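Usage example:
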Amino acid sequence: MNARRSRVAVATGVLVGLAAAPAAATWTDPVSISGTSLGTATLDAPVLSCTQQGLTSVRISWPIQTTRVPTTPTYVATIPGVTVPSPTVSGSTAYVDVTGALLSSLVAGTKTVSVRGTLPTNWTSPTSTINVTFVLVGLLVSC
Amino acid sequence: MLALVGALGLLGGLGTQAFWNDTASMSGTTVTSGTLDLKVGGQDSYTWSALSISSMAPGESTAESLTISNAGTTPFTVTITSSVTALDVIRTAVLATVRTGSTASTTSASYPRTENCSGTGNITYGPAALPTASTTVLGPSATIPAGGTLTFCVLLAFDSTAGNTTMSQTYAPSFTITATQA
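Running the assembly step on the lines above writes:
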């Protein structure tokens, strides 16, 4: 902006009679800068699906988040009382296979599989869960 | 009647007084006022989208530099104020640094995106959270003569220890640069 159009007179004194000196004034020219925006990432809860794979295994899978994050999250799956291997990545999907062998140390019944994503920071996604049921000491596993 | 004739006769006896005078005209003198004209990035108004970043994660940072120029005829100093619109949870997790005579590093595209203000210029603000109310982050600067420039750089760094509560937040800083006749 040209300051001649926007100059602001800064009076440094009050008028003292007709013989007062002209008020001192300085020109200013402000420019506003906008349009800057920072948005932080969003780590979504994985959307879990369960696919039966024969009698003794199910596959818990979820799409890998690729938007609203600066890098691909890593995922962790857990089942209480069991050491679940790291999820396998296949294209845009990650999955874990829950097999009878994996659950063989547990008492038969319904178990909860929990999956969450993490970024290499302190951030973790909300946890998603899905139940699997196994009977006959892990011989039969179903969603 | 006799008195009137006498009065007229008296007036007719007065001599006429006159003064000579002469005039000469002068021209060709013009008083032209100067101009105070601040340009930011060569423009009268500026949208600083280059400093923007999306999907930012803790530990990442963005930095950009801008050049202020004196496009008028009057020397001036500049003062830069800034404020931010954001929830406190993210406002306090983003640390701003303002540095004169500094340029930003090359834009980083891969995670973690870390940019910086390089150079030997003085830090005039931060690293500190910007307040919601306007605060001075630079200036008054040294006098910038007509045709002169001043470059400054702004770095916004997302605290690497920020927790989950800082997800899905927006942070919108604004700046006002005011040139004041020196």
